[in-house]
Amino acid sequence: MALIEIENIEKHYGKNGTNVKAVSGISTEITFGEFIAVLGHSGSGKSTLLTMIGGLNHPTRGNIRVDDLDIYALNPEQRADFRKEYIGFVFQAFYLIPYLTVLENVLIPFAISDLSAAKRNSRAMQILEKVGMADKADRLPDELSGGEQERVAIARALVNEPPIILADEPTGNLDSVTSAGIMQLFADLHREGQTIIMVTHNQENLKYASRTISMKDGRIDQLN
Amino acid sequence: MAKYCTQCGTQIEESGKFCVECGTPVEQSAAVGQSVLSGKRERVLGSNKSKSNVSLFIAVIIVPLALGILIFFENLPALSNPIIDEQPLVAESVTYPPVPRQMKTIETRVRENKIILPLDVVLQKKFVAFEFNNNGRVIPLLAYVSGEGKVITAISMCEPCNSTRFHIKGEQLVCNSCGTTWELNSLDGLSGACQGYPPDAIPSIVVGNEIQIEIAPVINWKPRV
Ligand SMILES: Nc1ncnc2c1ncn2[C@@H]1O[C@H](COP(=O)(O)OP(=O)(O)OP(=O)(O)O)[C@@H](O)[C@H]1O
Ligand SMILES: [Mg+2]
């Protein structure tokens, strides 16, 4: 069974004639464990597609089912729980909180959870270990390189163990060597079974993905 | 439908039992998927608070009524935030330049179940971040002087992206993580993915040189995601 079923979704922005068709008819299925790269020119609808999958952006038409949940038929409370259970977001230039240490930054999604402090700490350290930042857990973000900050941001997205990671140009601000390190981290996560959907501008990154979706004018470019 | 190996990502034949690259059995891939997902769907559907019996009523009566009201009110301004409406004016109107103004962290005190901020410091820094530590649960807060000159106090969190940092740019409040923008005076969404999650306003009053926030709504605050 597909983990994510996207059925003929469209997204139109704007009222009264200023209608922008950001996404105009996309259908695809994404299986558990896939690593999808979403490629396309600026304005082709990549971020719109990603936020629709993440339950943050109501499609104008069509349905998205995740683990057999029709996410936009859920009530807002259920959709909020859907995001908490299923989705981890990684954004480009994720600003970490400057006066909190790496560990404290990763603990933020837990600020409101019922887990004991000891459990939260060990869980966060485990994730920092995974992204290769455990030895810098006590540092402040200012004392980290851009790539290291991105690793902490990824740790933060992973800490609630979401089955789906949505990443919007996570290497957009990094040089090519640092990018390759971050992509290797995503590839490692993928090997462990993590489902990842990543928007990227960089052709270099495609080799890490198990499938590429090419977008053009709000549609999947079938030629690719 | 294409299948992929969960261990190495290689595409597997529809009928394949093992990954040709790394030899992982396909059943195991499916099983890994199931165990990661187990219980999640139930937890999401469990947050259905009041749907079952009233859903027909909602469909037949409320929805057409609400649609009618919506259409009727479409040209009126958006409903305002009642907490922001009540916030005190502390300055003449303020004009922020179109360059980002980041939050400045300040120290606060707690006295008689109130968080106390020095008004003069907030007026000088315009946009401040502070925290309330409720027995180890740290709640991030912010305060700023709006364009209208009101002091606005709020929980400093954009839940979908777990960001607690924002900046002010011109007449907009912007999330440092996702770039979502809200109107500075009203916190109405303007653009971006997380428009439904502006900093959640918390009431405060001004007494002398103190901005006072009751801790009860801060302690009881629940993330909206
Ligand atoms: N909130 C919004 N309101 C109105 N129009 C929008 C909104 N968000 C996106 N758009 C428009 O929809 C189209 C697709 O935007 P989207 O952000 O999805 O593109 P993208 O492929 O992510 O581009 P980029 O590579 O520049 O990030 C663009 O024309 C954009 O201007
Ligand atoms: Mg984009």
Can you walk me through this structure?
The complex is a heterodimer of chains A (224) and B (225). Chain A has 224 residues and is α/β, with parallel strands linked by helices. Helix content of chain A is 30%, strand content 26%. Chain A is built from six helices and ten strands, in the order E-E-E-H-E-E-H-E-H-H-H-E-H-E-E-E. Chain A has helices spanning 46-53, 76-86, 102-107, 117-130, 146-158, 176-191; strands spanning 4-13, 20-30, 35-40, 61-66, 69-70, 87-91, 164-168, 195-199, 211-216, 219-220. In chain A, helix 4 (117-130) packs across helix 5 (146-158) and helix 5 (146-158) packs parallel to helix 6 (176-191). The longest helix of chain A is centred in the last third of the chain and has 16 residues, at 176-191. Chain A is globular, with a radius of gyration of 18 Å. Chain B has 225 residues and is of the alpha+beta class. Chain B folds into two domains: 3-74, no CATH class; 82-219, Rieske [2Fe-2S] iron-sulphur domain (Rieske Iron-sulfur Protein), CATH 2.102.10.10. Chain B is 24% helix and 28% strand. Chain B contains six helices and 16 strands. Chain B has helices spanning 26-37, 40-46, 55-73, 82-86, 119-125, 215-219; strands at residues 3-4, 11-12, 101-102, 104-105, 109-111, 114-118, 127-134, 137-145, 151-155, 166-169, 172-175, 181-183, 189-191, 200-201, 205-207, 210-214. In chain B, the strands form four sheets. A five-stranded antiparallel beta sheet of chain B has the order 3-10-11-12-13, with no helix packed on it. Chain B has a five-stranded mixed beta sheet with strand order 4-7-8-9-14, covered by helices on one side. In chain B, strand 8 and strand 9 form a beta hairpin. The two termini of chain B are 32 Å apart. Chains A and B meet through helix 2 and helix 6 of A and strand 1, helix 1, helix 2 and strand 8 of B. The complex binds adenosine-5'-triphosphate and magnesium ion. Residues 13-14, 20, 22, 40, 42-48 of chain A line the site of adenosine-5'-triphosphate.
